[in-house]
């Protein structure tokens, strides 16, 4: 399986980079992992609704340019479906069974994802009703994808 993670913005925090590198390395035994960072749109702290829409649209265009036509797209969104780790594993196994070998996870910037990206997504996934920094979500996502592969293979993993 080829798994890509498209994120907005450059990751700067060393502790997050270390965790992400660790899980990407572990996942290498199960799938090919590609991390794609697209530039975030520079914007002032205080934005009008119209300005927010412009920022999300520009970031969305960059995201969409990185998604292959034949990819199954999972957008991380606060209003997405919440799943257990076991359900994520079952769903990913189902994708592999039915020939969907390219999976792209999308993590938006601080303002979220543009509607065009959400329309392109085959599903929306939520990890919580809480808001998390998008850089931290990349680490959480990689850990959960790793956990899903361990579950699929029947390998032990702490609960």
Automatic annotation (TrEMBL):
Cellular localization per UniProt: Cytoplasm
Binding site for S-adenosyl-L-methionine: 76, 108, 127-132
EC code(s) of this entry: 2.1.1.177
A Gene Ontology term for the protein's cellular component: cytoplasm
Reaction catalysed by this enzyme: pseudouridine(1915) in 23S rRNA + S-adenosyl-L-methionine = N(3)-methylpseudouridine(1915) in 23S rRNA + S-adenosyl-L-homocysteine + H(+)
Source domain of life: Bacteria
GO molecular function: rRNA (pseudouridine-N3-)-methyltransferase activity
Keywords carried by this UniProt record: Cytoplasm, Methyltransferase, rRNA processing, S-adenosyl-L-methionine, Transferase
Subunit structure: Homodimer.
Family: Belongs to the RNA methyltransferase RlmH family.
Function description: Specifically methylates the pseudouridine at position 1915 (m3Psi1915) in 23S rRNA.
NCBIfam families in UniProt: PRK00103.1-3 (NF000985), tRNA_RlmH_YbeA (TIGR00246)
Protein name: Ribosomal RNA large subunit methyltransferase H
